[in-house]
C-alpha cells in the first residue's frame, strides 16, 4: 500500500493529517466526477497518488522555495499540479487556467470542498488571458504539466511570468531534442534556460524533467499570437 505521507516525505514535504484528508477528498471527487466526464485516464488509488499527487508535488525539486508566490498553472486539466501544490503549501496564491469550462466547474467544486483560499479557477485560452493587463507578466512562477512542445508552451506561458520570475515546464522523460528546438522561442519571449532538473519519480521508474526558465526581459507585445497559432506554427 502506497503512503502519500511517506512519498511526500521523500520529497522533503511534511503533510499534516488535515492535508492528507484534503488529498483524500480530492481523490474521491476526482474519481466520482470522472464517471460522467473525462478528467483523467488514471483512477486507481495508488496510481492517482503516484502519477498525479506525488508527481505534482515533485515540482519542489526545482527548488523555487514554494511559500507565498503567485503561481499560474496553465492547462491545469483536473487541477495538476496546482491543487496538490496549494494543499501542501497553503501560503501560495494560485490561478488555475483551463480552456474547458466543464473542467473549471469541477475545479471550483474541489476548491470549495477543500475550503482552499487564494486559489481561483478561470476558463479561457492561454493566448487570450496573456493579453489582459491583470494577467500579463504578473506571476512569480508559471507551471505547466500540459502536453505541448517547449516552443508552443513557452509562447503560452512566458508572457505571464514577471521579469525575474520563473517558468517551470514539467516534462516526462528526456527532452534534449525538444530543448534544442525550443531554445529560440524561449529566448525570443524573454526567457533563459537556467537549469535542467532530471529525476525518477519516487516509487516508480518514470523519468521526469523540470526546466527552470528565468524571465530576463519582457516578452514582445505581439506574443502570444492569436488562439491556435502557437500549436499549429510553433516559433522556430
UniProtKB/TrEMBL annotation:
Gene3D superfamilies per record: Vaccinia Virus protein VP39
Biased composition (Basic residues): 216-225
Any one GO cellular component localisation term in the record: cytosol
Domain of life, source organism: Bacteria
Pfam families with a match to the protein in the record: GidB (PF02527)
UniProt-annotated binding residues for S-adenosyl-L-methionine: 75, 80, 126-127, 145
One GO molecular-function entry: rRNA (guanine-N7-)-methyltransferase activity
Top-level enzyme category: transferase
Keywords annotated in UniProt: Cytoplasm, Methyltransferase, rRNA processing, S-adenosyl-L-methionine, Transferase
Primary localisation category: cytoplasm
EC number: 2.1.1.-
InterPro entries per the UniProt record, alphabetical: rRNA_ssu_MeTfrase_G, SAM-dependent_MTases_sf
Disordered: region residues: 216-236
Subcellular location: Cytoplasm
Task of the protein: Specifically methylates the N7 position of a guanine in 16S rRNA.
Family to which this protein belongs: Belongs to the methyltransferase superfamily. RNA methyltransferase RsmG family.
Protein name per its UniProtKB record: Ribosomal RNA small subunit methyltransferase G
Native source organism of the sequence: Anaerostipes caccae (strain DSM 14662 / CCUG 47493 / JCM 13470 / NCIMB 13811 / L1-92)
Gene: rsmG
Amino acid at each position: 500500500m502506497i503512503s502519500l505521507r511517506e512519498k511526500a516525505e521523500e520529497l522533503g514535504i511534511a503533510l499534516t493529517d488535515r492535508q492528507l484528508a484534503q488529498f483524500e477528498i480530492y481523490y474521491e471527487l476526482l474519481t466520482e466526477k470522472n464517471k460522467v466526464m473525462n478528467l483523467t485516464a488514471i483512477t486507481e488509488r495508488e496510481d492517482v497518488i503516484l502519477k498525479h499527487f506525488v508527481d505534482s508535488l515533485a515540482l519542489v525539486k526545482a527548488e523555487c522555495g514554494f511559500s507565498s508566490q503567485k503561481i499560474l498553472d496553465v492547462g491545469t486539466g483536473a487541477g495538476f499540479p496546482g491543487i496538490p501544490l496549494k494543499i501542501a503549501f497553503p501560503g501560495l496564491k494560485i490561478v488555475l487556467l483551463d480552456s474547458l469550462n466543464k473542467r473549471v466547474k469541477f475545479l471550483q467544486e474541489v476548491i470549495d470542498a477543500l475550503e482552499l483560499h487564494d486559489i481561483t479557477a478561470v476558463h479561457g485560452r492561454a493566448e487570450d488571458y496573456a493579453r489582459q493587463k491583470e494577467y500579463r507578466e504578473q506571476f512569480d512562477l508559471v507551471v505547466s504539466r500540459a502536453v505541448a512542445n517547449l516552443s508552443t508552451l513557452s509562447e503560452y506561458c512566458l508572457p505571464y511570468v514577471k521579469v525575474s520570475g520563473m517558468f517551470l515546464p514539467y516534462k516526462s522523460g528526456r527532452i534534449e531534442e525538444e530543448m534544442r528546438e525550443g531554445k529560440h522561442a524561449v529566448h525570443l519571449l524573454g526567457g533563459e534556460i537556467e537549469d535542467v532538473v532530471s529525476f525518477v519519480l519516487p516509487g516508480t521508474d518514470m523519468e521526469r524533467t523540470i526546466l527552470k526558465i528565468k524571465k530576463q526581459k519582457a516578452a514582445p507585445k505581439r506574443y502570444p499570437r492569436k488562439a491556435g497559432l502557437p500549436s499549429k506554427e510553433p516559433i522556430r
